[in-house]
Amino acid sequence: MAAGRGRALADSRSVAPLSPAPPAVDDLHRRILDWYSRAGRDLPWRRAGSTPWGVFVSEVMSQQTPVARVEPAWLAWMDRWPTPADLAADSPGEAVRLWNRLGYPRRALRLREAAQAMVERHGGEVPREVEALLALPGVGAYTAAAVAAFAFGTRSTVVDTNVRRAEARLVTGVALPAPTLTRAETALATSLLPADDADAATWNVAVMELGALVCTARAPRCAACPVEDLCVWRAAGSPAYGGPPRRGQSWAGTDRQVRGRILALLRESAHPLSAADLVAAWPDDDAKRARCLAGLIEDGLVEPVTDGLEQYRLPV
Ligand code: SF4
To answer: Which residues pair with 310 in a beta bridge?
Structure first.
């Protein structure tokens, strides 16, 4: 590894943390954009001809869910609801059913509500402006920036966990970023955007892809990294993470798992299910099962059937 180039980034950072030396940044741009053109995954929503709606759906699905699980779900959704109007006209229960096992199923309801808002306020189209995107149900700063960049080529700063991790190592020289996004990280990501708008849009997805495929959380593949010799963290000897403890992603036995099992039973059933039917979702803890069912009802993901029987179904 040619540590000198990485050191140039580190030294420039110590003087002006958000303004790495231009020659090194130009090199970073060229190499990462070139790497992405060769190694970026051929995902259906990245292909020519993909619609802004397809990009929008992919961004909502990809939050907190790995791409390998998103791809088949995205294909099924786009086949069933190729436009916002198609989804807006269908029932919330069908959105939850087709969400399948992507996790965090409230996203399915928010996606349908966003589709309804697009029909009501934007003529059935995904809006181009970040402000209009932010006003849609369930759309936060990340999704708005990502859709603006990837659907419309707008210059915007897109910062997800993969970007944060890659830029933390590459430029800041730490093993992992802070537990939650900081203003300094967003400022750093903005300062790293290429000057050309089209390159800036591609840069966002290229760094994201580098974090997803090469600069991974547990075992970065530095030998395969196109910018290893520019990496401040590598130049510093790959120091271990020294920040606050990080919360693990627990799953077994959590309310999320129980909620997922209840929804799975309801998805797979052609008719409403009784409380007794739902025991199969979590037989060992009646209180936990009841609490999770109540939470699903409160979230609008399940509704009681009001015909005198104690039965439940996906919302209609
Ligand atoms: S050299 Fe390693 S740590 Fe640095 S950006 Fe590349 S993969 Fe990440």
So the answer is: 306
Is 125 considered catalytic here?
A: no
Q: Is the CB of 228 under 6 A from ligand 1?
A: yes
**Which strands sit side by side in the sheet containing 310-313, from one edge to the other?**
273-274, 310-313, 303-306
pLDDT in tens, 19-61: 445 558 999 999 999 999 999 999 999 998 999 999 999 999 9
Ligand 1 center–CA 238 separation, angstroms: 9
169 close to ligand 1 (CB < 6 Angstrom): yes
Indicate whether residue 173 lines ligand 1 (CB < 6 A): no
Q: Return the closest-CA partner of residue 242 out of 136, 168, 150.
A: 168
Spatial separation of the C-alpha atoms in residues 7 and 35, rounded to whole Å: 22
Tell me the Ramachandran region of residue 300: left when phi exceeds 0, alpha when psi lies from -120 to 50, beta otherwise: left
* Tens digits of residue pLDDT in 205-250: 999 999 999 999 989 999 999 999 999 999 999 999 887 777 666 7
Instruction: Indicate if ligand 1 lies below 6 Å from the C-beta of 166.
Output: yes
State which ligand 1 atom lies nearest to the alpha carbon of 165: 8
Cα–ligand 1 centroid distance for 204 (angstroms): 17
For residue 295, how many other CB atoms are within 10 A of its CB? Answer: 15
Q: In sequence order, what DSSP letters do the residues of 11-44 get, joined into one string?
A: HHHHHSTT---HHHHHHHHHHHHHHHHHHS---G
* Structure tokens, 186: 């967003």
In whole angstroms, give the CA distance from residue 305 to residue 311.
5
